[in-house]
From TrEMBL:
All copies of domain Tc1-like transposase DDE, residue ranges: 156-316
Residue ranges occupied by any DUF4817 domain in the UniProt entry: 9-50
GO molecular function: nucleic acid binding
InterPro entries hit by this protein: DUF4817, RNaseH_sf, Tc1-like_DDE_dom
UniProt superkingdom: Eukaryota
Protein name: Transposase
Amino acid sequence: MPRIQYTPQEYANMHFIYGECRGNANAAAALYRERYPNLRHPDYRVFIRVHGCFSEGRIPGSGVGGASAGRPVISNDEEIVLDEIERDSSVSTRTLARHTGISKSRIQRILKKNMFHPYHFTRVQTLQQRDYNKRLFFCQQMLAKIEEDPQFFNNILWTDESSFKRDGYFNMHNLHSWQLSNPRLMREDRSQYQFKINYWTGILNGKIIGPFELPGNLSGQSYLQFLQNDLPNLLEDVPDEVRENHWLQNDGCPAHYATQVRAYLNATYENRWIGRLGPILWPPRSPDLNPLDFFYWGCLKEEVYSKPIRNLEELRSRVQQAATKISQRRYARLLKRAFVRRCRICIRVNGRQFEHLL
């Protein structure tokens, strides 16, 4: 089947848009369709070939520079690989080699030549349809508050609870050991002998409050006792003005929503708390908007689980050491900037998941 011929101006437009899209052929094809709705719409491979022509000093479709008339012909292997990638962009080079009979190294060279890159997926929170508007309204409300009072974010005591177990999260990608020869290292996991500790932590004006060990599973009654008896002691080092005027943030945990807890918050933090049925409503399923989730717990657990943990006391000691290390710096400016950015992106996507856009 003969290849479709384009005018010199069309080739120039394609090459210009390909550069505008930073070598992303799929994005270039989409932008071309949007910008020139009444012209013929080439698929992404045309943009790759046109760019290859100009890079080699040839003019597409003209035969200038020693090329034959028409567009440059790419190898059959290249056609096969690009077709497979178009059908399934998540296919591995190993699977491609098995299905096509082309060597893995040849496939990698073809993909590199055509400027394809292996991008990773981002894990995001599962949301329900009804969550979008609540997340959108929360972000709009918070940005308005921060615009009205630049210190508003820093006056919020952001809080969260998390469990630390024997076999917790650790990043195998960053875990390595420099050796002269391969020591065949291994790491035990998923022990039948399990133990865990529940911790509460807060962040107020960039200062880490805690972590504080909670007894057993959290309930409305135990959380109320924490608010009444333990939280005031944890805030002793906070300046009086900040302690008297700060806001308290809770997420959607059932213990935070208990009737007695809400009664205490309404009496103690009158119009100064964030949570379910609070003066400012915390949106459901939104750890991506809580600094404890998008910053603190990840840093803490990566430090805690960098080495295997043998017993409960070692876990408790490791948590305290990691917390002390993280607390040596104040993060007020960085956390506020990160939170505002997340709110703006959340608004831009109408309350949907946004962490893959950061």
